Amino acid sequence: MDSGEIKSRYVILHLEVLHGSDRYEINLHMEREPLVYDLQEELEKKARVTVANQKLNFRGQRLHQSPDKPLSAFGLFNGNRIMLIGEKEAIAPQYCHNLLADLYAKVQRCGQDLNTFNQVANNVNVDSSECDALKKKNQTLERIKDLIDISNNVSSAIANYGAQYQHRKQ
């Protein structure tokens, strides 16, 4: 199969979608001609506006009213700009809580790793006559200590926020 055959099998469409002050680059790579609905699904993922709430305008045409029509039927081609109107979907509080819980677990693991690095760095034997090596060891220990402090502060902030969230929920 040569490149001409590949090009004829795939339709590649690059569009710019404006939504208020936000701008989204949409790339549709398909084995068939992309439909309005394909664009809407991609926008639902990127712009967080549900398909049902989307109003898509291109040169006075209301694309959202014809989801089963190919985009080419509206005269769309690479580089065109489309206007999206619609409210972003709010992020569910439980979803945010789950993200925070995951972040907290990762910060805890990071803190544990930093403590391990600290122990290893402390156990490195450097001859006192090797001034540069001793200086590097001390700088490394200071940097690790700073990162441990940051890790502890982040963990504490996440835990406090989680406690406040639970308190508000009750």
TrEMBL record:
InterPro entries: Ubiquitin-like_dom, Ubiquitin-like_domsf
Signal peptide annotation: none
Superkingdom of origin: Eukaryota
Domain annotation Ubiquitin-like: ranges: 11-88
SUPFAM superfamilies (alphabetical): Ubiquitin-like (SSF54236)
PROSITE patterns per the UniProt record, alphabetical: UBIQUITIN_2
Name of the protein in its database record: Ubiquitin-like domain-containing protein
